[in-house]
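Repro:
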Amino acid sequence: MKWLLYALLTSLVLLSACSTAPMAQETAAPVQTRISAPGVVATQPAVVVVDALGREVTLAKPPTRIVITGKGLILTLDAAYMFPEAPYRIVALGTADQGSGNFVSLIDPNFDQKVILQTDAGAEQIATVKPDLVILKSYLAETVGKPIEALNIPVLYVDFETPEQYTRDMAILGKVFQNEARAKELADFYINKVNAIQTTLKDVKEKPSVLLLYYNDKDGAVAFNVPPMSWIQTQMVEVAGGKPVWGSANLGKGWTVVTLEQIAAWDADQIYIISYQKNSAQIAATLKTDLQWETLRAVKQGHLYGFPADLYSWDQSDSRWILGLTWLAARLHPESFPQFDVVVEAQQFYQKLYGLDSQFFEAKIHPTFRGDLP
């Protein structure tokens, strides 16, 4: 996947080239101990940001009343909260919970002062918060964004869907929070991690065939789904040194339901189960005892796994995708990562990206581990 690394590096170059003099960066103190907001100088010039849709948005001054809402807001929120300014400038947000708790409520010392919006909050409800900026996923531009913009409220669009978009959108947030140095630091973290994995696997010749399945049992009907080839889940399999077997399926723009007959026909070396609401390890354990699943080669050989998660699943384009990628690479090629320790990896992730110390990690994060994790 040399193209992916090239795209990531290109994004970083653009990020650095476009940066202006950043504000003094806050130290990496644990988020839960921050007691004062980074200052915003009243005489600062207007902020000009090019968003994910290529729109140039001009803000009269650095925004201090930011709203993040709409579908997919967890992915945007978790990126925003890697900036020390976020707890003090985000005043309203949608519900950020996938069934195992709300990460932002754990790390934002001002969370009880936030306005919690409904997921489908409309322009009028958002306007009551008096925001000076609303951040939305780009696919909400027509349905949610336009009515908000009609009220003369600035809207910025981000994607946070693929690794290359991740560095670009991080640069957008760096402009918003007037902390481009932090945006570059975060981009470096992701790029270096991907680079290290690709370097480790560059001489690997045997790539296991992999089937990634999203388990959904809404309304009591169980369905298994595969992602589009362009989604981050597929890219993670490829970068981790696996071969996604579902490329020949008639894939749509979202998750595509597949039958057990199709799953059997693909005959993957390894199968991974994703669940956003339940413990994927428990689902995998149940499937291993199912008479139909017992016949699959991956199950017979002990290669059916629950994809990892803590409060949120590590497969999606949330900030944790880098944890999922690292875990998957070590699972597919354990001989190439003999020293891999998922607990140590996760602890370092939370310390470097969110400023959370080991005590916080052990008390609040580690107990939420789900999937095939220690």
